[in-house]
Amino acid sequence: MTATMRAAATRVLERNWRGTYTVPAGGLYPHQWSWDSAFIAVGLRHISPRRAQIELDSLLSAQWHDGRLPQIVFNRERDDDYSPGGDFWRSETIPESSAVSTAGLVQPPNHALAVLLVHEADPAESRRRRFLQRAYPRLVAWHHYLRSRRTGPSGLARIVHPWESGMDNSPYWDAPLAAMTETIVDDVPRPDLQHADASHRPSNAEYGKYLYLAGRYRDHDCDDLDALSPYQLEDPAFNALWARSELALADIAAVLGDDASAAEHRENAEQIAHALESLWDEGLGCFVARDLLSGRLQRFRTVSGLVPLLLPDLAHTDALLQTLRGEHFALGQVALVPSHDLTAPTFDTARYWRGPSWFNTAWLVAEALDERGHGSEARALAEQMSSLALTHDFPEYVDPHTGAPRGTLDFSWTAALSLDLSIRLGAR
């Protein structure tokens, strides 16, 4: 299957390549997305390590002066094809922004992990192009931004918009959004519905609040220290990926001969992992999100709460594995890993992050399983990814009960991550 997967995935990634970066999908997502590019580079390294480096170089070059890596880097020629676009964000008017048109929000920090994996795919080419020497200081600045501008007394980074979680309409955000009285009701632009079924996407009511929050953040010059921001949450996956990327930064620093910085990054990772303990819910058997405005934990089982499995020496590994294998996520009995608890009244087989299974989170879980010594389950998950990707033309996500495709097709991270696991786990 690996040869077939390589050929098919390469076709998708070639089709979505735009010269210096890869779009997530040609119609629905016409720009460069932050954590998408990191996931895409993980697969591109098997096709062309140099192109994978260029993918990450392109994203890192859009970094703001304050260190943030923006959620989206816009192709202004396609501004009308996605909302909100560059005209909405007007990033060129914000003092801290970069010279290119970007969103002001961020996405989960999986970038250092991607940079390390891309370097390891061809260390000689990486050294020749001084890839790590360019990427490392930018990644350090990105993590410093999270620590200095987004982290409070708990030691965890907060998100200021559901989009920053990468899991836009998770049940985690229901109560915090419901508590908001402000929204946009009239003329909510939805170009996404030209490319995907409305039943697969967030609702207009959700989008109205998304756009209000984004506009308010923009109008405050994307000020992360705005105490009156109506949306501030701590998300387990965001912080677990930050901790995991600190470990990757430690390995990168060691390659560059900076042992002192490597030790500091490992200490940072331990501190974030320790802080994550405050999001553990013993009754649910997984991590949950916290609304910083109400102080309440958002008590839902979601795939975000499983992502801390990526962290070594995690105190709750056994409990998380039990939750993953049990009735709530049914590993090995359904397609991939559902984004939400199969038994919950809020579960939806079709709508975005309220139930469907995604390939990027399946990749994260497979990585965690493999590293924790559960190779057979990791390989089974990798084989599922390959089979579903090839059968359904690389869908954005799938129905966990039937495996039927949802969202858009020819999705880049589906191709990239299915290829990665097919090569690495399928070859054993």
TrEMBL record:
Keywords: Glycosidase, Hydrolase
Domain Mannosylglycerate hydrolase MGH1-like glycoside hydrolase: 29-414
Pfam families hit by this protein: MGH1-like_GH
Gene3D superfamilies: 1.50.10.10
Family membership: Belongs to the glycosyl hydrolase 63 family.
Protein's name in the database: Mannosylglycerate hydrolase MGH1-like glycoside hydrolase domain-containing protein
